[in-house]
Design goal:
Length: 180
């Protein structure tokens, strides 16, 4: 049984590394597709749903932090897995939106424009980076490697929280320019 553990760890690391590369590459390719798929007008509401998902994810991350500081491991686990599930749902919704709709240009002028683009670019860059961290944090927690989980969440948590919050802020800033 002991010889299987390193093999299982290698397999998990390989899957995490592949997903951490494949997800951002797939999203970038989908964003580059000029021919949009027509799935109906309902897809124009997805950015608003994504704003809600990111808002709830931000709250769940903070609640998860509260629970672990209270030593309520079970509540922490449920909360963080809920945040992870919402993050996955967000990804599907985000891809669906950009597969079916043109990107909405930001119409703000003046000082708000560079602020918007700073938040947007930092959000995008860190959203690519955080995938690897989140997948490893979840893997370590679910596989009972709590010390490794604690070590990686020192970096994962603030990045994930920043990505979630800036996702909401960027959404609120561009919301007036959406068609629906």
């Amino acid at each position: 049984m002991e010889t299987l553990q390193p093999l299982q760890e290698q397999k998990a690391n390989r899957i995490i590394n592949i997903l951490s590369l494949a997800i951002p590459i797939a999203v970038a390719v989908l964003l580059g597709i000029r021919q949009k798929v027509d799935l109906g007008d309902w897809t124009t509401y997805l950015p608003h749903i994504n704003g809600i998902i990111n808002s709830i994810t931000s709250v769940l991350l903070l609640v998860g932090l509260y629970f672990i500081r209270q030593k309520n491991v079970e509540a922490h686990k449920r909360t963080m897995l809920s945040a992870f599930t919402l993050g996955s749902l967000f990804l599907v919704s985000y891809v669906l939106y950009h597969l079916t709709n043109e990107s909405t240009p930001f119409g703000g002028q003046g000082w708000v424009r560079p602020v918007y683009y700073f938040l947007l670019i930092s959000h995008i860059v860190l959203s690519v980076v955080v995938v690897w961290f989140v997948l490893r944090a979840v893997y370590f927690a679910l596989s009972g490697q709590i010390q490794k989980h604690k070590q990686i969440v020192k970096y994962t948590f603030p990045i994930w929280l920043y990505v979630s919050i800036t996702g909401v802020v960027v959404y609120l800033m561009i919301k007036p320019y959406y068609i629906h």
